[in-house]
């Protein structure tokens, strides 16, 4: 419980949101400043005071930088810190479920210390035999997204043909490994030679290609999937989705996880080949991870043994220090990151 009395007042470095964004986000849409914070939870409050250790850079944060009208998403407030998923250590607590010293993951502020009142998203970290930063990725929201999207939405079977776009990203790299563990044939697309090599050498994909080097994406997909695609895990949208529709097999499934190619456009691109959904009886379904968090215990039971046995590996791209956070977030949209983009605020 919170200790009475006045706590220590300390400096608190923060990344503040400047103003609503149109087009591609820029580093200048955020700025780093230093405020102060009291290291005690206010008397009578059920808030939790945390020291932030790792922050997650996620494409959905771009959605919140605009004036949001979608249900379930709220815009950032100009002049306030960005918020997102992170890993933190509890320093003081007025909430019965948390105590000083607990390690947690969930929604926190882009700052050194956060006083969190909305703690519905906070989860205590039980397994500390994996790197703590994994709770921004493999063991956090992206891991749950890959697990729910692949197993629940795609209803996969061994031997099926699986295509994943943005395949070296936080979610894609895991979907590919889950598919391989199930006995599927897996091909991924990514935006650089380094990422393609990573997919083939470290992440165990059967094949991969650099979409920037393919002048005819349709021909590329026919080369890698002469029999067609059973499952497409959609992370990018736009022209890729349009061409994939032509190459789906009858009764194929498309899990629509993200459309990063569309987030920065004033007007999103149209998709012309939707009639394929009819002729091929394709099941195409959008989802967000928030509908599947009830499966988190089952997810951990599945994934922790894979990690311990080395059957699932995870690639992170770490940016050091809060000052590096704006560049790390913006870099997602030019594909600068290799693997899951994490910002290291503090290590303990």
UniProtKB/TrEMBL annotation:
InterPro entries: ADH-like_C, ADH_N_2, ER, GroES-like_sf, MDR_fam, NAD(P)-bd_dom_sf
PANTHER family assigned: 2-ALKENAL REDUCTASE (NADP(+)-DEPENDENT)-LIKE (PTHR43205:SF76), PROSTAGLANDIN REDUCTASE (PTHR43205)
Molecular function GO labels: oxidoreductase activity, acting on the CH-CH group of donors, NAD or NADP as acceptor
Pfam families: ADH_N_2 (PF16884), ADH_zinc_N (PF00107)
Keywords: Oxidoreductase
SMART domains xrefs: PKS_ER
SUPFAM superfamilies the record matches: GroES-like (SSF50129), NAD(P)-binding Rossmann-fold domains (SSF51735)
Residue ranges annotated for the Enoyl reductase (ER) domain, each copy included: 35-343
Name of the protein in its database record: Enoyl reductase (ER) domain-containing protein
């Amino acid at each position: 419980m919170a200790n009475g009395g006045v706590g220590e007042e300390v400096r608190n470095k923060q990344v503040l949101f400047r103003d609503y964004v149109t087009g591609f986000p820029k580093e200048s849409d955020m700025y780093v400043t230093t405020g102060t914070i009291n290291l005690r939870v206010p008397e009578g409050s059920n808030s939790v005071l945390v020291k932030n250790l790792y922050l997650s850079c996620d494409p959905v944060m771009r959605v919140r930088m605009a004036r949001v009208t979608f249900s379930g998403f709220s815009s950032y407030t100009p002049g306030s810190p960005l918020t997102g998923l992170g890993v933190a250590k509890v320093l003081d607590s007025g909430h019965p479920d948390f105590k000083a010293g607990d390690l947690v993951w969930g929604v926190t502020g882009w700052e050194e210390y956060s006083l969190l009142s909305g703690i519905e998203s906070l989860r205590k970290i039980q397994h500390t035999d994996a790197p703590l930063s994994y709770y921004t990725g493999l063991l956090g929201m992206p891991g749950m997204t890959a697990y729910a999207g692949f197993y629940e939405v795609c209803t996969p079977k061994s031997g099926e043909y699986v295509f994943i776009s943005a395949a070296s990203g936080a979610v894609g790299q895991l979907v590919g490994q889950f598919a391989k563990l199930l006995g599927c044939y897996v091909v991924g697309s990514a935006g650089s030679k380094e990422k393609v090599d990573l997919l083939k050498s470290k992440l165990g994909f059967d094949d991969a290609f650099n979409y920037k080097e393919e002048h005819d994406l349709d021909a590329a997909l026919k080369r890698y999937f002469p029999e067609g695609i059973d499952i497409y895990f959609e992370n990018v949208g736009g022209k890729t989705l349009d061409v994939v529709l032509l190459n789906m097999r009858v009764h194929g499934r498309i899990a629509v996880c993200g459309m990063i190619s569309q987030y920065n456009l004033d007007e999103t691109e149209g998709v012309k080949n939707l009639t394929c959904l009819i002729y091929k009886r394709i099941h195409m379904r959008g989802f967000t991870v928030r509908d599947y968090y009830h499966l988190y215990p089952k997810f951990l039971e599945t994934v922790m043994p894979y990690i311990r046995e080395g059957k699932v590996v995870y690639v992170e791209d770490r940016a050091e220090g809060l000052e590096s956070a704006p560049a790390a977030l913006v870099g997602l949209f030019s594909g600068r990151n290799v693997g899951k983009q994490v910002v290291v605020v503090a290590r303990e």
